[in-house]
Design a protein that fits this description.
Helix content is 32%, strand content 27%. The protein contains 9 helices and 17 strands. It has a 9-stranded antiparallel β-sheet. It is globular, with a radius of gyration of 20 Å. Bound molecules: adenosine monophosphate (AMP) and magnesium ion.
């Protein structure tokens, strides 16, 4: 139901729109919105439209290219690896192998709170499938948990293969691929000469340059229990801002909220936090850490964030209380 509403909203906004506004030609902002990676993506770029328009088009192409590499549901480079699980080593593009290696690094650093082998458990809950989520039985979950374990993944850069040793194991890069796609799209725009842009994929953002001289990009952080409310604002340039929240994909049954961020140790949704926002130098780090911190919880999660240079976090716990990592008070301007 909730997913259907979100989808309808997205479709209504689909009509790709281009808005140009601003002062001189060099600080005009061109905005284009399209559906990509299953969400509404808005790209804003500052500069003469003759430069920004083709760059924005290429940014969307880049998002679609990364989706074709990493999608869990559509036929992709990733599903080809998953199809060979338990059978043989699967051939994969170097780019995908690199992203899997980065995922393994975050799994290691988070002690398995972020785990790209969550696929079989994610399939049981089906939060990202087209036919809607379901509540799996505890026996199903217990029987599936042995298929989750990032240490089982083997990547081979020389032979360009990835191996998942057990049948029905499956990689799910849903917690990192969007951040990666945003990074690639931003790089593409920079390579085409754009000095300043913001890419917003359903609230997950990568921005570079400034909106106007002396004006950084301003990002609103959503109140997890009020879709129209803002809890904080972050002013950024050359940064990614990614949020993982229990309000993004969820259902409520018998007064209990079940959502899409899963604890790889239990196979159940991770409880304790409502949302985690990460500000980091790049989208991959922000995306992987937002999920890892959500699963780790406030204390362990913020400690992990503080082990990274230039990474900051704001978390909201199940009571609605806000906590931040060291230095984050300089990034987030709280609204209350
Ligand atoms: P995010 O919204 O970035 O936190 O990513 C959530 C998505 O990543 C889910 O829809 C799943 O596909 C996948 N996922 C869920 N739990 C985990 C986890 N603990 N580690 C890695 N990926 C996960
Ligand atoms: Mg994430």
């Amino acid at each position: 139901m909730i997913l259907a509403v979100i989808r309808l909203w997205a479709i209504m906004l689909f009509a790709a729109m281009t808005v140009s506004c601003g002062l001189g030609a060099s600080d005009k902002i061109t905005k284009v919105s399209q559906i990509a990676m299953g969400t509404l993506v808005e790209v804003s770029a500052v500069g003469p439209p003759s430069q920004t328009k083709p760059a924005i088009e290429e940014a969307f192409n880049e998002l679609k290219r990364v989706e074709a590499l990493t999608s869990f549901h559509k036929d992709s480079g990733l599903t080809q690896i998953n199809n060979w699980a338990g059978k043989a080593d699967a051939k994969a593009d170097q780019e995908l192998i690199d992203l899997i290696d980065v995922s393994i690094k975050f799994a290691q650093l988070s002690e398995g709170a972020f785990d790209p082998t969550i696929g079989p458990i994610a399939r049981l809950w089906n939060f990202s499938g087209n036919d809607g989520p379901r509540l799996p039985g505890s026996q199903e979950i217990e029987a599936t948990l042995p298929l989750v374990g990032w240490k089982l993944i083997q990547t081979d850069t020389q032979n360009k293969t990835v191996s998942l040793p057990e049948q029905d194991m499956a990689l799910d890069l849903g917690a990192i691929a969007k951040g990666y796609a945003l990074d690639r799209a931003a790089e593409k725009m920079k390579s085409m000469g754009v000095k300043s842009a913001l890419i917003n994929a359903g609230g997950d953002i990568v921005a570079f340059g400034v909106k106007a001289p002396g004006k950084p990009w301003r990002i609103g952080i959503q109140d997890p229990r009020n879709p129209n409310g803002m809890i904080a604002v972050a002013e950024i340039n050359d940064r990614a801002v990614v949020t993982s929240g229990d309000y993004e994909r969820f259902f409520i049954q018998d007064d209990k909220r079940y959502h899409h961020i899963l604890d790889p140790k239990t196979g159940q949704p991770a409880y304790g936090l409502q949302s985690v926002t990460i500000v980091a130098p790049d989208g991959v780090t922000a995306d992987a850490l937002s999920t890892a911190v959500f699963v780790l919880g406030k204390e362990k999660g913020l400690a992990l964030v503080e082990s990274f240079p230039e990474v900051y976090s704001l978390v909201i716990d199940s009571q609605g209380s806000i906590a931040m990592s060291k230095g984050a008070e300089n990034i987030f301007d709280l609204k209350h």
